UniProtKB/TrEMBL annotation:
This is Glucose 1-dehydrogenase. Coiled coil: none annotated. It comes from Azospirillum oleiclasticum. The keyword Oxidoreductase applies. The keyword Transcription does not apply. NCBIfam families: PRK07231.1 (NF005559). Belongs to the short-chain dehydrogenases/reductases (SDR) family.
Amino acid sequence: MGLEGKVAVVTGGARGIGAAVARGLAERGARVVIADLDGAEEAARTLRDAGFEAAGLRVDVSSEADTAAMAAAAEDAFGGLDILVNNAGIYSSLTPKPFAEIDPAEWRRVMEVNTLGIFLCCRAALAPMTRRGGGRIVTISSGVAFKGNPFMAHYVASKGAVVSLTRALATELGPRGILVNSVAPGFTLSDGVLGNPTLVAGVKEPSLRNRVLARDMLPEDLVGAVCFFAGPDSAFITGQTLVVDGGAYYH
Ligand SMILES: NC(=O)c1ccc[n+]([C@@H]2O[C@H](COP(=O)([O-])OP(=O)(O)OC[C@H]3O[C@@H](n4cnc5c(N)ncnc54)[C@H](O)[C@@H]3O)[C@@H](O)[C@H]2O)c1
């Protein structure tokens, strides 16, 4: 299965893409800590009920104290931390609008969760991963970072920052045996997206039309790529971003 004996933290793992990734990591043998603002313990219980080892913790990734507690919880519960999936992000709650109409407070919050959040989670994971002699960090960026989609300038900017941060951290952390890669999803029918009818109405059809593989993209479509970067088959790959979008954008 590839991830036996590994301990993984998935931020935003209670639903959507994060929940699918948490399950995929567990199915490959990892013990999983689900860190989420909401519903973490319920999601962990669902995994435990299915026979996996999992723990849940309420974490706001933009909080220094919460992210420190998250790393400590992985070590307390499962004895270490090997894999960090930085999936938590603000997207599905956003209403598309021209950039000039974006409230600066909304801009700050998007950046705080989508970029500062990853910085804090990686920083918290550094000592535990170093104690294990290395680790894997997977960030979830987005295809929009390459395409420059309109009407979500703050979100697009934040995901561009995730791609660049992935490269910078890969360079800094490679010597410590910590590999850092990113998965860039296309428009995915996650729980959050399905709960925002305006987003679905505006983005679903155009996304389908622009895809070589002309079907809806689901959270499960991302599991293989994330688990690849978390596991032994990617042992000589770092700093990369893999676009997973059914062939909408060739990176
Ligand atoms: N769905 C898409 O089309 C799509 C496309 C490209 C990239 N992404 C990225 O994938 C990731 C997951 O998206 P999704 O569509 O599954 O989202 P979702 O809304 O379905 O789930 C997001 C989860 O993150 C949690 N979360 C939000 N803010 C948090 C915070 N501050 N701290 C901890 N947890 C927090 C939420 O509680 C929720 O459980 C995001 O980073 C998003 O930007 C999504």
